[in-house]
Every structure is written in structure tokens, then in C-alpha cells.
Amino acid sequence: MPKTPTVHFEAASTLAVVVSSNEPLLFLSDDQKVIAASASFCRAFEIDPATVPGRRLSDLGNGEWAMPKLASLLKATASGSAHIEAYEIELRRPNHKTRQLVVNARTLDDGEIDHIRLLLAVTDVTDARAETRLKDDLLRDKAILLQEVQHRVANSLQIIASVLMQSARRVQSEEVRGHLQNAHHRVMSIAALQRQLSTSTGGNVELRSYLTQLCQSLGASMIADPGRLSIQVTVDDSAVEADVSVSLGLIVTELVINALKHAFPDERSGTIVTDYRSSGSDWTLSVADNGIGIPVGSDAPKAGLGTGIVEALAKNLKGEIQLSDARPGTVVTVSHRESAGLQTDLSAAA
């Protein structure tokens, strides 16, 4: 019931309203004797209507309404020093399940202090509370199952990566060995993504830790001499949804692998920097190296699987790819601008 001041009433009309109400209502004197009860109250709590008038609230039914805390709050409400609003109680009766009730009370009077009366409204929320608990349990079980599946997937990917590496060591063909090693690196990076997701508590993923761990995993699996090559990560405090983090992680994986394979030939030393920045809905992801730069002419590498993966992921994120010469080195930038997407939509509509 809404918080309201004392309401003035005419006794006869109030009795009629209470008795005929479709809601469980009790009309009480200031000493908590029942003046009237609605038929719905009597039906809901299996009380004989003929036994209600004149009895104290604590004596109704088999005494299950004798609740000291409720009685104290009703007394304070009658004196004007308190209000009962959405107060939750448990009604316990022999051979019945416990019921969760929400009670609201306010005072009614006819202008004379000796005629203070209380109107008590009762709402049964047992089923609603049970449904909420069930939903909470299902969500918790789903989260636990998802984490377990992600953990198992990460372990399985690591096993596959190990088999690929063993196969690469055994084959004689350099070309086949290169393909197996590339497959190994990609599987290891995806395993790293899955391992991080399996430890996530759900919700958004904090990118600084996420991309740092990913690049550490790539470095551990692909850099034989950490003194010669290194991978650095600079990320702001951005957090994104889990599916977005996976796409960003795969883009970083492909760009870092490409830099490690092509930017530092002949045992050159260098650094690869992964950077992410966001402002509102706009964001920019870049992977830069200080290697040999962009090959041109016949030395330019052919677009391969990695390029196709990055282009597809960027398109899925509604991002644009830009390749630039860092002199020395190369920078690949994937950026998303909300205003650019809006302008495109407006142009299409026109």
C-alpha cells in the first residue's frame, strides 16, 4: 500500500469495503482486535469468517498470527510513530507449507483519537519468491556448466595443439611443417582465449588483463628468444561483452602471428605493440611492429588465411581496417566509429 497519512472514514462504509474486498484485508482496532476481515482473507488462510470479529489478531486460526514483531509494528503504526510498508513475514501452520507474506498497514480514523483503526493488507508472495529462487538457481547452474564446458574446450584445444606440434617435428616437407606450425599457433591462441573465458565470472570482459594474457601466451609459444623479440600491450580500462572480446582476441592473434612471421627476418630484433582505446561506443585496436615495414612488389606476401580471418572479424564488429607504414615497421588498425555507421545508415536511407 502507498505511504499515506491517516485517512478519515465512515465506519459503516469502511466495513462494507473491507468485507467485500477481493484482496486479503483486516480491519483492526488500535489494540489489534479484528473488527472485520475480507472474505478473501478468510479463504486464503482457511479461517472461519464467523470466528473472526472481536478476536485478537494473535488468536486467529490456530495462533499462527501471533507474531511479536508484527504486533510491535502495528502498535507503533497505531501510535503514529511508524508505518508498515512491504514488511515480509513467514506464516507457519501445522501440516501446511510455510507461506511468504508481504504486509502493509496504515491508520484510519474519524477525527477522534479514541477511534484509531488499522487497515492491514496481506499479499501472498510464496509462488513469486519460489519462482525467483528457481530462476536464480537455473542461472547459477547455467553459469557453472558454461565455465566447465569452456574449461574442457581449452584443455582439448591444448591437446590438439600438442599433436600438431609433434606432427610438425616428424614431417620432412618444410611446406607441410610450416602449415602445421601455423595451425598450432592458431589453436594455442584460441585455447588461451577459452582458458581466460573459463575463469571469467560472467558479464563484461576487462580487456587489459585479457589481451595481456593472450599476448603472453602467443609469445611463449612463438618467440624462441625473448631477448630478441617482445610483445607489449597497452590497453585502457575498457570492458566489452564476452563475444566481442573473443573477436578482438582473434584479430590480435592473427596480427601478432603475422608480425612475428614476416616483420623480423634474419634474426632481427624488435617489438610488437598491441594497443586498444575506446571512447563511448567508438574504439580503436592496433597492432604495430618496428620491423622491416610493408613489402612491396614481388616481395609483398599474398593474402592468406590470416588476412581473411581479420577482415571477417572486423566486418562482424562493424570496424574498418587500415594498413600503414610506421617507418620503421607496420601498423594495422581496426577502428569502429558509431558516427560513421550512423552516417552510412542515413546515406542508405536517402
Count structural domains: 3
Detail the poorly predicted runs. Answer: 1-9, 344-350
Largest sheet: 6 strands, mixed
pLDDT averaged over residues: 82
What's the count of strands? 13
CATH architecture of the largest domain: 2-Layer Sandwich
Which class of secondary structure composition applies to the elements?
A: alpha+beta
Q: Give the termini distance in whole angstroms.
A: 53 Å
Q: Write the H/E string, N to C.
A: EHEEHHEEEHHEHEEHEEHEEH
Task: Enumerate how many helices there are, as a single number.
Answer: 9
CATH topology of the largest domain: Heat Shock Protein 90
What's the CATH first level of the largest domain? Alpha Beta
Which helices and strands appear, and what pairs or packs with what?
Elements: E1 7-8, H1 11-20, E2 25-29, E3 34-37, H2 39-44, H3 68-79, E4 84-91, E5 99-109, E6 117-124, H4 126-170, H5 174-198, E7 205-206, H6 207-222, E8 229-235, E9 239-240, H7 242-262, E10 270-279, E11 282-289, H8 305-316, E12 320-325, E13 330-336, H9 338-349
Parallel strand pairs: 1-5, 8-10
Antiparallel strand pairs: 2-3, 2-6, 4-5, 5-6, 7-9, 10-11, 11-13, 12-13
